[in-house]
Amino acid sequence: MVTSTTFISDILSFIKSDLTSNVTDPITSSRVSDSKFIMTSYPKRLAVYPLITIKLMNQEAKRAGMQTEAMDVTINLEIRVWARNQKEKDDLANTTYKRLRDIQFTATTGSVANNLHEFKLLSATEIDEEGDNQPKSRVLQVQYKFYDI
Amino acid sequence: MVSIEIKNIEEFKKFMKEKQDVVIETIPLSIKKATLFMQNQVKESIARGTNAPVAVDTGRFFNSVDFEPTGKNEAKVFSALKYAKFVEFGTSKMSARPHFRNTAFKEKEKVKEEMNADLKSAIK
Predict the structure, then answer these.
(1) DSSP class of residue A149?
(2) Between residues 109 and 148 of chain A, which touch chain B (CB distance below 8 Å)?
(3) How far apart are CA B79 and CA B65, in angstroms?
(4) What tens digit of pLDDT does each residue of B15-54 get?
(5) How many domains is chain A partitioned into structurally?
(6) Confidence band (pLDDT; 50, 70, 90) for B101?
(7) Does residue A123 belong to any structural domain of this protein?
(8) Domain membership of residue A97 as a residue range
(9) Is residue A2 assigned to a domain?
(10) Are B30 and B42 in contact, with CB atoms under 8 Å apart?
């Protein structure tokens, strides 16, 4: 559940744990133990592709009304899929988007139930590094609203 | 019985048409002003690191920041350089320096306020 006092870590943790449980790691059987499939920033640890990174890009807050301390917070996240080839990149990006779309209204474990409202996919930008063995990546910029009451 | 009488309807229509024309003239000018402002802010960020770490070496990226209209009452600030997206989003070997995105996040409200002020002063 995303709460007011720890909401940045709550958001990252919510997205990370949901994707970890529901997006299949294509190399799950061969992934080395000190690498992770989903991380909350660009890996400081060993990077073994494919992987997904989640980062908070920006947050904006506006007062929810007159004479109230409640704030309407807009959160922009960058979810980046790093893959070994185009197909893997597109499959993972699509699965990630579809998962976030599908869990919006799921009871208890969904994003709205965890206080993340009005899911939007703002863009999906392709950032392919040049060269055959270089990682291919797609940056999904997603937005949520958090009503900080 | 209640009745409402509207007088000088033709004059009112003329007044509203004049205001509408003023708004139609003002919007493109205001968008141009906002676009130039955003271009300058992105450049300042690249050169001075106001919104992301400085990204000037030869000045090629800095000088590539340009703008163009993209439709009716729309414009974009962009860099046509091939490596601009790598600077903005980072790569597996280099951290991102999101000058465009951070500038947009930071200045969005200011641009809205300026455009609102332009429209308000135009229809006064």
Answers:
(1) -
(2) 125, 127, 129, 134-135, 137, 139
(3) 5
(4) 999 999 999 999 999 999 999 999 999 999 999 999 999 9
(5) 1
(6) very high
(7) yes
(8) 7-148
(9) no
(10) no
Cβ-nearest to B92 among A47, A60, A139: A47
* A40 within a domain of the structure (yes/no): yes
pLDDT one-digit tens code per residue, A41-51: 776 778 899 99
Please calculate the CA angle B95-B99-B101 and round it to the nearest 5 degrees: 100
Q: Which residues of A touch B86 (CB under 8 A)?
A: 127, 129
CATH number at residue A98: 3.30.2000.30
Interchain CB distance below 8 Å, B91 and A127:
yes
Give the integer Cα–Cα distance in Å for B61 and B83: 9
Percent of chain B with pLDDT over 70: 100
Question: For the residues B88-96, what does the mean pLDDT come to?
Answer: 91
Q: Which residues of chain A have pLDDT under 70?
A: 43
A89, A116 contact by CB (below 8 A): no
Contact residues, chain B, for A57 at CB < 8 Å: 98, 101, 105
A82 CB within 8 Å of a chain B CB: yes
- The answer to whether residue A1 is domain-embedded is no
Instruction: List for chain B the helix, strand, coil content (%; round to 5).
Output: 60, 10, 30
**Neighbour count for residue A33 (Cβ, 10 Å):** 6
Would you call A42 and B85 a contact, using CB atoms and an 8 Å cutoff?
Answer: no
Whole-number pLDDT of residue B58: 92
